[in-house]
């Protein structure tokens, strides 16, 4: 019965983590390039009160008596499905159709990865994110360039004054990972590589290593399904409630046993 | 008289254990691939001289047949299948288990939230390799993944379609060999698995097979039965003993 109290408490704390994740998904439902997370739970260890297969009073028991000790959150899995495309007509807005991440150079020199393609040129004409971090490989767009086109294979071209043919300014490269779900979210729409994600494989969009292609003038919305998240929220609330009922029953039985003593 | 007191006591004790199981089932209602445990009660003839049910008296049997918690069995019914959209989330439909390689040997699970490791090996969220039908790890090349209902994984890479392997689904002739170990795993305790007839659904994860209605019913039953035992105990405790110790000497 003491076990039941702790078991129910573990269920309540797991549902709290679940609700925290749902809240973050809903809060980011309008964040460009955001991928929703889903908490995975696992059962805790079991106490074997009677070991299955043990002999008791001449007959062998076909099943034992195992009491589980509750649940805990095991992982929050990133759901890597494609988000909807939102047409912005911004000439530096890019969406990735398929697998891959943009490579971003952060001020400390490390590389981070993102699906959010809302870029713009900074004062030097270098393509940067909204936070001012450089998109790799660095592409400089002269201020007098016009008709900037970014092809689905990442080639950036522009018409420069006094030239009839468009000039190539560079090629945007994407990175993929063996296990993209193993990337570490660090906020600011950025992800970091980890031991579990593996090393990045970089290539031009549409390249041989299964890389997605680029769409100029579009941004990828978050892949949060608001309706599904609301359903998850209701389920989390009810699961929390039923675990609290277990605590109530355990408490009730306790008080009855205490009541036996006159 | 005392015998009845102990019968009510074991009954109450068994209900507190049953509450533990009900609590665990409800706490894990959101755990992927969780199999609920169902208690069963059994009668135990308490250690009289005459234990043989053939020759024991009817009165002796009914008075000494204590209701204890006999054990619990895994409920192997299907859990609800939840779509996630991740290509490596696999749900089993029908009886069977995925086999995974853990540090303590091969274990079985219904939690199909898998991913690809940094070296391309199909693994659980804890990093344990998922085994194929020959109980060997599966390496998946990069590319878009399609998993057929029989578990065959085909990947369309730049060099064309490749069959990466076949996820194994295993079952056991004697289901009671399985014991829950926690972390969504079951140990078969050395029993040999046979191929399962289950089909595999890609992009979904199977939830727990404990539903709130059953769990709550179980709670209410345990609570009311415990109340009954407590009433019985207090009758022995208050009324009988009081009569014996206080009222009788006065006669």
Helical content of chain A, roughly?
A: 10-25%
Largest sheet strand order of chain B: 13-14-6-5-12-15
Largest interface (CB < 8 Å)? A-B, 73 and 66 residues
**What's the total count of β strands of chain B?**
17
Number of beta-strand segments of chain A: 22
Spell out the helices and strands of chain A N to C.
Answer: HEEEEEEEEEEEEEEEEEEEEEEH
Q: Can you describe what's shown?
A:
The complex is a heterodimer of chains A (262) and B (251). With 262 residues, chain A is of the alpha+beta class. Chain A contains 2 helices and 22 strands. Chain A has helices spanning 2-27, 226-259, and strands spanning 37-43, 46-50, 55-56, 59-60, 65-68, 71-78, 85-87, 94-97, 101-105, 111-114, 120-121, 127-128, 134-136, 146-150, 155-159, 167-171, 174-176, 184-187, 190-192, 201-203, 213-216, 218-220. In chain A, a hairpin with a 5-residue loop joins strand 9 and strand 10 (111-114). Chain B has 251 residues and is of the alpha+beta class. Helices cover 27% and strands 31% of the residues of chain B. Chain B has 3 helices and 17 strands. Chain B has helices spanning 2-27, 58-64, 212-247; strands spanning 37-45, 65-74, 81-83, 90-93, 97-102, 105-109, 114-116, 122-124, 144-147, 152-157, 160-166, 169-171, 179-182, 185-187, 194-195, 199-202, 204-206. The longest helix of chain B is centred in the last third of the chain and has 36 residues, at 212-247. Chain B is elongated. In chain B, 41% of the residues are buried. At the A-B interface, helix 1, strand 1, strand 2, strand 5 and strand 6 of A face helix 1, strand 2, strand 13 and helix 3 of B.
């Amino acid at each position: 019965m003491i076990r039941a109290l702790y078991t129910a408490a573990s269920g309540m704390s797991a549902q709290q983590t679940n609700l925290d994740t749902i809240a973050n998904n809903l809060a980011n439902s309008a964040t460009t390039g955001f991928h929703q997370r889903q908490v995975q739970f696992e059962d805790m260890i079991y106490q074997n009160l009677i070991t299955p297969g043990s002999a008791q009073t001449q007959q062998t028991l076909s099943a034992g008596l195992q009491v589980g000790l509750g649940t805990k959150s095991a992982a929050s899995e990133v759901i890597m499905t494609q988000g909807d495309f939102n047409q912005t007509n911004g000439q530096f807005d890019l969406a990735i159709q398929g697998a891959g991440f943009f490579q971003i150079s952060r001020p400390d020199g490390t590389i981070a990865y993102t699906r959010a393609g809302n870029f713009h040129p900074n004062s030097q004409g270098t393509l940067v994110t909204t936070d001012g971090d450089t998109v790799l490989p660095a592409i400089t767009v002269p201020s007098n360039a016009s008709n900037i086109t970014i092809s689905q294979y990442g080639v950036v071209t522009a018409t420069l004054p006094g030239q009839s043919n468009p000039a190539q300014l560079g090629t945007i490269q994407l990175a993929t990972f063996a296990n993209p779900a193993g990337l570490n979210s660090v906020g600011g729409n950025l992800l970091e590589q980890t031991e579990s994600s593996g090393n990045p494989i970089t290539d031009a969009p549409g390249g041989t290593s299964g890389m997605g292609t680029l769409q100029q003038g579009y941004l990828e919305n978050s892949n949060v399904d608001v309706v599904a998240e609301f359903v998850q929220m209701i389920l989390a609330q009810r699961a929390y409630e039923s675990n609290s009922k277990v605590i109530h029953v355990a408490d009730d039985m306790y008080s009855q046993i205490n009541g036996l003593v006159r | 008289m005392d015998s009845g007191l102990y019968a009510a006591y074991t009954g109450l004790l068994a209900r507190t254990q049953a509450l533990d199981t009900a609590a665990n089932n409800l706490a894990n209602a959101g755990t992927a691939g969780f199999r609920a445990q169902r208690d069963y009660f059994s009668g135990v003839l308490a250690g009289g001289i005459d234990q043989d049910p053939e020759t024991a008296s009817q009165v002796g049997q009914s008075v000494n047949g204590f209701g204890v918690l006999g054990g619990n069995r895994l409920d192997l019914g299907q859990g609800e299948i939840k779509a996630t959209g991740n290509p490596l989330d696999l749900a089993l439909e029908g009886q069977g288990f995925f086999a995974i390689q853990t540090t303590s040997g091969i274990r079985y699970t219904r939690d199909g939230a898998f991913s690809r490791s940094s070296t391309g090996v199909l693994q659980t969220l804890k990093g344990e390799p998922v085994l194929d039908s020959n109980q060997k790890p599966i390496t998946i090349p990069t590319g878009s993944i399609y998993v057929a209902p029989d578990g065959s994984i085909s990947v369309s890479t730049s060099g064309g379609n490749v069959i990466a392997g076949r996820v194994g689904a295993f079952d056991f002739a004697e289901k009671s060999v399985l014991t829950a170990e926690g972390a969504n795993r079951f140990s078969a305790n050395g029993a040999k698995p046979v191929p399962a007839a289950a089909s595999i659904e890609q992009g979904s994860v199977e939830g727990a097979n404990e539903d709130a209605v059953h769990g709550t019913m179980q709670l209410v039953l345990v609570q009311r039965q415990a109340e009954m035992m407590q009433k019985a105990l207090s009758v022995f405790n208050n009324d009988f003993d009081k009569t014996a110790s206080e009222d009788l000497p006065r006669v």
